[in-house]
Amino acid sequence: MQRGIVVARGLSLKPNFQFSKATRRSLPLPNRFKTTISCSAAQQETLQKVQSIIAKQLSIDESAVIPETKFAELGADSLDTVEIMMALEEEFGVSIGEGGAENIATVQDAADLIEKVKVASG
């Protein structure tokens, strides 16, 4: 039998279980998991409008603008990001301000901020 030892940031974690060779062969476990956890405050309609505005501002296909995408991954520089924020303010009739815009990294962040500002002002 073989014991698994995991070393993370200098800490050794030794599990209290063992797998036999037969068990390891019979359990097809993927090498990695990809899990997305979202605690979004934005409504679907708001998110769709934000995605559309970002795609239009950057002249890219809307299907490339997904919630987890960072503006930089879409090719946006700091000027593009400012223009996107201005377009969002105009579309939703809100004022985001510099303080709020500084924490925006992803499309979902932008949609969540719009929802937060809408709720606070309405």
UniProtKB/TrEMBL annotation:
This is Acyl carrier protein. InterPro entries: ACP (IPR003231), ACP-like_sf (IPR036736), ACP_chloroplastic (IPR044813), PP-bd_ACP (IPR009081). Belongs to the acyl carrier protein (ACP) family. The lineage of its organism: Eukaryota, Viridiplantae, Streptophyta, Embryophyta, Tracheophyta. NCBIfam families: acyl_carrier, PRK00982.1-2, PRK00982.1-4. It comes from the Eukaryota. PROSITE patterns: CARRIER (PS50075). Residues 44-118 form the Carrier domain. Carrier of the growing fatty acid chain in fatty acid biosynthesis. SUPFAM superfamilies: ACP-like. Coiled coil: none annotated. It comes from Stephania yunnanensis. PANTHER family: ACYL CARRIER PROTEIN. It holds the Pfam family PP-binding. GO terms for molecular function: acyl carrier activity. Transmembrane segments: none annotated. Keywords: Fatty acid biosynthesis, Fatty acid metabolism, Lipid biosynthesis, Lipid metabolism, Phosphopantetheine, Phosphoprotein. HAMAP family: Acyl_carrier.
